[in-house]
């Protein structure tokens, strides 16, 4: 596939359950996200946003359809191969912050590369600590961080391997307005300075409008696709 796209999805369908209790979460959903784009997937609760993100991230296999990340077709890979590919090319950020409590900030950030048998270079670590404003917290344990600092650590961890794309599922949902704005500023810096492709799920229209592009979902489908900012990268 054309590598000018970070992610492509073609006719994705996903249903949970069967018979009278079946719930169709995605209905022949297709999209393309360009390299270096910051896109929001917007819509009400239960419309399929998180399911779409998990399918794009290789976490939840669709019933039908195809997904490409960085030119590689995700669901043609064997599970072990897909797991390695995800670790290297897809950064995930969640509303619930999954930091390892026994590891400090620096160790949590380096974790994806250590799992891959590679050390995080000192230069890359310094870049990530600087862009996230965590330089003075590098040795702190998660329990000694604020909620915003914990989420910034999780974002730095997702960005550490320089993945093809970062997928964020309601990343500001548990934060107050000040920390919400700080996280959006961080995503924008990663996007503009390091040309990281970011896809963020949200139900907050104000946050979505800070992105380059908004895909609006309802009932398992993308109903509108609006470009808010022309590419300047």
Automatic annotation (TrEMBL):
Q: Where is the ABC transporter domain?
A: 7-233
CDD domains linked to this entry: ABC_MJ0796_LolCDE_FtsE
Enumerate the GO terms in the molecular function aspect: ATP binding
List keywords of the entry alphabetically.
Answer: ATP-binding, Nucleotide-binding, Transport
Q: Transmembrane segments in this chain: where? A: none
Q: What is this protein called?
A: ABC transporter ATP-binding protein
């Amino acid at each position: 596939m054309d590598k000018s796209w970070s992610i492509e999805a073609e006719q994705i369908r996903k249903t949970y359950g069967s018979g009278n209790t079946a719930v169709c979460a995605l209905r022949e959903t297709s999209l393309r996200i360009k390299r270096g784009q910051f896109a929001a997937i917007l819509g009400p609760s239960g419309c399929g946003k998180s399911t779409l993100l998990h399918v794009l991230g290789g976490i939840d296999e669709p019933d039908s359809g195809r997904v490409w990340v960085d030119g590689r077709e995700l669901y043609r890979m064997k599970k072990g191969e897909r797991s390695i590919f995800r670790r290297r090319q897809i950064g995930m950020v969640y509303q619930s912050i999954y930091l390892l409590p026994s590891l400090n900030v620096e160790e949590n950030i380096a974790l994806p590369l250590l799992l891959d048998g590679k050390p995080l270079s000192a230069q890359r670590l310094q870049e990530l600590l600087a862009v996230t404003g965590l330089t003075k917290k590098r040795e702190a344990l998660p329990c000694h961080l604020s909620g915003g600092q914990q989420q910034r650590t999780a974002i730095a961890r997702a960005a550490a391997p320089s993945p093809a794309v970062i997928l964020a599922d309601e990343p500001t949902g548990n934060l107050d307005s000040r920390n919400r704005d700080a996280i959006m500023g961080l995503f924008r810096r990663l996007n503009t300075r390091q040309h990281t492709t970011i896809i963020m799920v949200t139900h907050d229209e104000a946050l979505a409008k800070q992105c380059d592009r908004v895909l609006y979902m309802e009932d398992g489908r993308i109903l509108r696709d609006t470009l808010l900012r022309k590419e300047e990268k």
